[in-house]
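Mods, move this if it's the wrong board.
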Amino acid sequence: QVQLVESGGGLVQPGGSLRLSCVASGSSSDYHSIGWFRQAPGSQREAVSTIRRSVGSTYYADSVKGRFTITLDNDKNTLYLQMNSLKPEDTAVYYCATDTVGGSYVYNQEDLRGFDRWGRGTQVTVFA
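Not the wrong board. Structure tokens:
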């Protein structure tokens, strides 16, 4: 089974940068899609950015386009999220998730229902 461990969260001022990492145990062939999601207090979990490995397509939420970049290092089985120009509204717990059963082919690339394995999350706080 794929296990996911996120790191890289922290406190940062508006305009600052952070890079999140997610190490996936097991083989990269064990999952179809992988991505980052976030959940702010009192809000639903939402997709930030995902990669559908079979076609190499990426998804970005409109709120992060141009500021965040997702990359997947297959050799290291590590997913990254480079976050630049951070805003207070980016404050949330960020989760890494994978689709190990093909569910992401049934739903849109940003749909949480397509992801079945989740990490514990890492807190990102952007404050002035």
